[in-house]
Fold this sequence. Notes:
CATH superfamily: P-loop containing nucleotide triphosphate hydrolases
Shape: globular
CATH topology: Rossmann fold
Helix content: 25-40%
Radius of gyration: 17 Å
Strand order of the largest sheet: 6-7-8-3-9-10
Low-confidence stretches: none
Number of helices: 8
Strand content: 25-35%
Distance between the termini: 40 Å
Order of helices and strands: EEEHEEHEHHHEHEHEEH
Amino acid sequence: MSQNALELRDVTSGYRSSVVLRKLSMTVANGEALALLGKNGMGKTTLLKTIMGYLPKKTGAISVRGQDITRMAPHRIARAGIAYAPQEHALFQDLSIRDNLRIGLEKASAFEERFAQIEPVFPVFTSRLKQFAGTLSGGEQKMLLVARALMMRPSIILLDEITEGLQPTVIDRLADALLWERRQHGTTLLLIEQNVPFALKVADRYAVLKQGEIIDDGNAKDETAAASIFEHLRV
Length: 235
């Protein structure tokens, strides 16, 4: 079996005739957290949508734990063990918190067991499972997205700027939730972020994306990591 949880090889992708990713290659090791940073419009969200099969690959290949998913449909990619928390709201606003959390479970009967496992990290939902998702605050909705991803017990979680617009206290709670998930289950993370402190707190490694290409990468715990990333974000 491949040593890597996720591997992209020379992937070119985009929207119709517009090329966004240009022969991009990258790997995320089993159990690793990689933070991918960059300014808006550099291809970060395109990358996640390409991995999930929402955008076609013009060239290249993508594999998950050695399994080729290049031509798979999105629902089959999800079944391969990838959970995706997109930047845009992806909750069912007119459904309860419980129903949103149940979506993605292969068996509804697994709800109680799965929720019991994540409940210590998301106690805000304990007494509110019947509440409609659309009535939650923005921060609570982001937490629900992450909670739903963890309920699936995936091997890989893709997070697209999950901290955008959130208060610092909520960001800290999300960081704690992701660190807890990694400690408990060794889950692999790929985080798309512009919040550098959050990214470096959660990640083992970082990479910087510019115009569809990775231009820098390094150890997230290195003392020079933040300065290097901010330099790229300024240019």
